[in-house]
Amino acid sequence: MKIKCALLSFFLLSHSLFSKAQVDSTGLDNVFGKKGTVQGMVYRITYPRADLKVKINEFSVSPGLALTSWIGILFMGSESMMMGDLVLQDTEEAVAVSKLVSAGLSITAIHNHLTNEKPAIKYIHFSGSGDPLKLAASIKSVLAITGTPLTAPGAQQTMASTDWSKVEAILGKTGKHNGIILSYSFPRKEKLMESGMEMPPSIGMTTGINFQMDGYNAGITGDFVLLANEVNPVVKALTENGITVTAIHNHMLYDDPRLFMMHFWAVGNPEKLAAGLKAALEKTNSKM
Q1: What are the chain's domains?
Q2: N or C, which end of the chain is more exposed by having fewer CB within 10 Å?
Q3: Long-range contacts for 9-14 (Cβ within 8 Å, ≥24 apart)?
Q4: Is 165 exposed, middle or buried, given 0-12, 13-18 or 19+ CB atoms closer than 10 A?
């Protein structure tokens, strides 16, 4: 309880300095070794696991679909809060946990997002607070002991764009296009808090949905951000539409309201899957 109260006091104090903060993206880019993005007061950087060849049955999972580690740093005056998600092989989990602990970072969840994938993949969620450059160096040291590629990939062959217009019509808005990948973020309408600090959507507080085209079918995965009373209605909507719920769990420790993350998987006709996802989204208090 004392730790939680201390965290709450820290974040409330930092919040009073929020308007004075500036995102030092150059310094963070130097630590991480490549460029991140800035949205509001959030710096975000990703590390796709392009080194992994993961399959679920005959479907090859691309890094952009479900295999990208991400780090978000929320600037709050002279201090910052960091959170994110590491994508690891089972064989990397133990050493990564040990390194997170020795680096002074907190582990908030360890679990699966997929099922029946080969090789097996685990996802470690973490958090930390303090000087942003020191936080960046700490999590970079964790990434460095895994097989995660640390530098930006070289020039890649451009993939032909997929026509997602029918899927977008069903979901009611344009997604983010990246070759054979279509990505969506649906923020919630509530104010979401962690340790007394408001968490903006850009630091991972949105329902994320990804499509990957494979021939005439699409693979879908992601996670719904849910209140307790939404969990089973969403399970029902997904299941009735042929979408498998792969995990239900938490990503944070001191969130308010208490949030549950629901991961899912399916391969099939993209428009049919989009209709199932839309039915599930309608059971949530999301901005659509």
Answers
A1: 2-143 (no CATH), 165-281 (3.30.70)
A2: N
A3: 9/196, 10/79, 10/129, 10/195, 11/76, 11/81, 11/129, 11/195, 11/196, 11/197, 12/196, 12/197, 13/77, 14/76, 14/77, 14/78, 14/79, 14/81, 14/197
A4: exposed
**The token pair that represents 230 in the structure block:** 């939404």
Copy the structure tokens of residue 196. 């007394």
Point out the residues of the chain with pLDDT beneath 70: 1-22, 154-160
Q: What is the pTM of this model?
A: 0.89
Q: What is the DSSP pairing of strand 54-56 with strand 59-61?
A: antiparallel
CA angle centred on 86, ends 123 and 267, rounded to 5°: 55
Coil, helix or strand at residue 195: coil
Q: What is the pLDDT of residues 156-187, one digit of tens each?
A: 555 667 899 999 999 999 999 999 999 999 99
Q: At a CB cut-off of 8 Å and minimum separation 6, what does 30 contact?
A: none
- The per-residue pLDDT for range 199-222, each reduced to its tens digit, is 999 998 999 999 999 999 999 999
